[in-house]
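Slide 14.
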Amino acid sequence: DPNITNKSNMKELFHGSDFVALRQIYTFGFNRSFAGKNATAYGKGDYFAVNADYSLTYSSGGKDGTVTARQNNLLGMLLVEVLTGDSAKGVANTPEAPCKPGTQIPYNSVVNNERNPIMYVTFRDSQAYPSHFITFKLQNRVVIETGNSEI
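Slide 15: predicted structure.
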């Protein structure tokens, strides 16, 4: 994206969803036309969390996942390399990031909190690369087994 002026802001962030969606994203990349399935509080984009425990709330496996995921009671999430660039505070239901003051150039991403963000939202699919598909099992909200999924 030529509008990304702060290319040093590449972050490893987490993305949680159901197993079928995660497998699609991992195989084909992000597709913003599906954005808004779980949230639009900071815009209609792709959502990424700084901490895995936040993405865990959006992870599901058993009810929505593959047969193997259901049989093994697996959950999943993605570790994603995200080019966040310059960020601004997000606004609910907006299709794009706001423009930088005095310009027609949009910010590269939005956040929930500009001082201490726990989530980032991007509006260009090419800003996010799913690098790892993480599978895990929980017992009493504690991870008891992890792996890199081939599912």
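Speaker note: The first helix runs from residue 19 to 28.
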